Amino acid sequence: MDNTDFEKSITHDLVNSVEYLSRSVVTRSILRQNTGTVSISSFDMGETQQTKYSPYDHLIQIIDGEAFISIDEKSNTVETGQAIIIPAHVKHWIRANKRFKMLSTIIKSGYEDISI
After folding, report:
1. C-alpha torsion sign, points 109, 34, 9, 7
2. What domain of life does the native source organism fall in (predicted)?
3. What does pTM read for this prediction?
4. CATH label, 25-107, candidates 3.10.20.70, 3.40.50.720, 1.10.10.1100, 2.60.120.10
5. For residues 101 and 44, is the Cβ–Cβ distance under 8 A?
């Protein structure tokens, strides 16, 4: 399974690879495999990603603008150049008080539910 919107082995301008669209969230897949995903999204001001739970840790990197990210009811403002890790199995949501672009990485190890 090799589904991607990006050509391999060449450089990409990530910030400009996804445009802002009025009153919308736009997402493009960079890498999509059975073992995880990397995607880039733009959020117009006022847009919200609804409350979610994920079975995997989720790395969010802000590459333009500023995001408001609530993790387990704790508020976080994440700015350009900053990143935050959303832990697996925790309620979270994302809001654009200002418009922003983010790089999202999820790695699925297959061992998330196994205690060591």
Report:
1. negative
2. Bacteria
3. 0.86
4. 2.60.120.10
5. no
